[in-house]
Amino acid sequence: MTATVRLRTSEAWRSLQVRATRALDAFPLSLASALVAAARRRRQLARGTPPLWLAKVMELDGLPCRLMMSLDRIGVDLEGRRFDVGLQLPADVPCPGLDDVFSVLVTSPSVRSIGFSWSDASADEDLRLMRGARGVAGGPAVTQERLTPTTAHDRSRFLVRRHTTMALPAPAEREARTLLKRLAGGRHTICLNLDAADGSLVDSVASAFPDARFFALGRSSFGLAPDGANIVAIGEFGFSLHERLAFVQAADAYVGVFDEHACAAVAAARPCVLLGGVDDERARPPAPSDRGGVVWLSRPYDLPTATPLVAGFLRRFAPRP
Amino acid sequence: MVGIYDFSYAPYALGDALTWTMNVNIGAADAGVETVDQYLVIDPSRPASRYQPFIDEHNYVSVIDRLFPAFLCSPWLRSLKLIRDARTFNLFLLRDVMRRRPMWPSLWSHLRRRLDFISHRRINRFYDRNGTLPWLTAPRGYGAWADDFRRTHCQGRFVVALHVRQGAWSLAPASLHRDSPWPEWQAFIEEIGRRHPDVVFLMLGGYAECDREAYRLPNVLIPRTMGFGLGHELALVDHADLFMGSSSGFATMATFCNIPYAITNIEHRFAPYAGVPTGARHYPFGGEHQILSWETETRKLLLDLFEQVRPGRRAA
After folding, report:
1. Closest C-alpha to B235, from B123, B117, B150
2. Predicted pLDDT of residue A18
3. Which residues of A touch B224 (CB under 8 A)?
4. Which tops the pLDDT comparison, A124 or B230?
């Protein structure tokens, strides 16, 4: 009873807030409201809140994954406080994955505003504005970074760190979970995010788990699903990145490359077998390791060695018959 | 030039976003500037206008995520911000006002929550004065990808970007009277396959909106089933030899990126917004191979339109 009253009161309060805000939309109240809002933001900046993270993107390959790791790190460091993000992208360089970059940024519940700029001048203007309150005690908290390819060390740290929660949109979660229920019911489900070169590993692991249902992500996943196998290729299902991430988090385990999908699986504490995904692999190949729920194999892997390792690892997390 | 798209009064809609971008371009061209800074403003507690009440704090992220690439189509785009905080946006706004930067909508229109996101009035006026328009391009960063897609998947064939509006099957069904009859389009595609084996259709639009029959047509590619999204599709429209489709957001892209097109099933009540009489064959800025059709599609009509606009293919 008390809970119901409290809920109704909070709903009424919220409705009142929304109505009051709508009233401020009317001119000239909207002008006064805009001026007051700008002044308040400026005062906040002078106090160093909320922080701003500016990153100059040096390399576009694997950007969604790198961003996801960076946002996760910043989110933990700031202990849930909200922050603004600015990305300076190289001008005149093809970037057909910008939609995925946006998708990653928009899922962080701590990110309040997202900025993309394609020129030094624009980035500098914004930085000047954000630092406009310099000299005031505390000063604006602006962090500038160069977003370079991640190293094995960065990825290792990501695996052992505490993670922030991803706020995937409700429709994406619903789509992924509903599909998983329809296609797998209560069976053990394993998400595969591999390429055609991993076909042999897929075949041997899938045959070791005849009762499990495997779901292959990726644009070329169709080739990974031989007729009659317990593998479903979902690469042609027209999923957005949000839906794919939700799918990975809803499944019971993940086997695949160390990309943004892997980050989502790790963040959701799913058992993971990670393959490659290290830019300086040749310089320092990561040894197969089992950190709690993660096994990480470098490429190229030896199939006779990898198969029992992966199968044994997955079996540890499979439900007992 | 500053562009403001505040979702508290502007709709989440592809065509409106592209028309807005065009208006921003025109503001920039009028002011003689070649840089555009765009602000997308969302208040998460009330993320949409009263006309789209089904978009709320729980699903707006999905909606803006799907629409985002539409805001990348200005050739002069220098920066783009999505701001989910009124204070931050107003600080940027105040800075730009103090610098007297031109804006679309103007400061006063924004403060009164007014935006003409439908009509072509300003666009037509600009064309009357200058005889050309500051056209849209493929979303920033996607142009080279579209060239590559054509090389890989279309193998020198004549590429027709196609969109058949099937709003009834979309995630948020609306204005279903504007939907097109798929069976007529299917018959048209099959006939073109017989007559012109060198033609390939790229079927655009949401995954749910595509009819399953389209999978069986050998002269149709469906980018969404290949793992691509709206940004890729808009780039493909810009790089296509021809666009054919119902009056919709993709048709707006074709209209404003200046490729040959045949746009069908146009709502009669749209005529005054476009500045043309109902039944007009072209927009005021449209060329010979940029045709409007105000009728519901039939196989015969589509075949006729195809033969009329096909010679307008751009030089490769």
Report:
1. B150
2. 67
3. 238
4. B230
Whether residue A265 has pLDDT greater than 50: yes
Q: What is A240-294 written as a DSSP string?
A: -HHHHHHHHHHSSEEEEESSHHHHHHHHTT--EEEE---TTTTTSPPPPEEETTE
Specify the CATH number for the domain of residue A227. 3.40.50.2000
* Residue A144 located in a structural domain: yes
Examine residue A32 and state whether it is found in any structural domain, yes or no.
Answer: no
Q: CB–CB of B111 and A28 under 8 A?
A: yes
The domain tally of chain A equals 2
Residues A41-95: tens digit of each pLDDT: 888 777 776 788 889 998 888 899 999 999 998 888 888 788 899 999 998 889 9
Could A113 and B62 be called an inter-chain contact, meaning their C-beta atoms sit closer than 8 Å? no
A129 interface with B at CB cutoff 8 Å: yes
Same domain, A123 and A199: no
Q: Looking at the structure, tell me whether residues A77 and A180 fall in a common domain.
A: no
Point out the residue among B88, B142, B227 whose CB comes nearest to the CB of A113.
B88
Which residue type, as a one-letter code, is found at position B180?
A: S
Distance from CA of B151 to the nearest CA of A (A): 16
Calculate ∠ Cα B52-B56-B58, nearest 5°.
150
- Taking a C-beta distance cutoff of 8 angstroms, is the pair A224, A216 a contact? yes
- Verify that A186 and A262 share a domain, yes or no: yes
Chain B nearest CA to A315, separation (Å): 31
H/E/C letters for each residue in A26-52? CCCHHHHHHHHHHHHHHHHHHCCCCCE
- List the one residue out of B267, B289, B263 whose CA is nearest residue B278: B267
Minimum mean pLDDT among A136-140, B6-10, B110-114, B121-125: which range?
A: A136-140
User: Residue range B230-251: average pLDDT?
Assistant: 97
Query: What local confidence, expressed as pLDDT, does residue B316 receive?
Result: 35
Same-domain pairing of A237 and A285: yes
Residue A211's domain comprises 170-317
Closest Cα of chain B to A60: distance in Å? 11
Complex confidence, ipTM: 0.93
Q: Assess contact for A30 and B112: CB atoms under 8 A.
A: yes
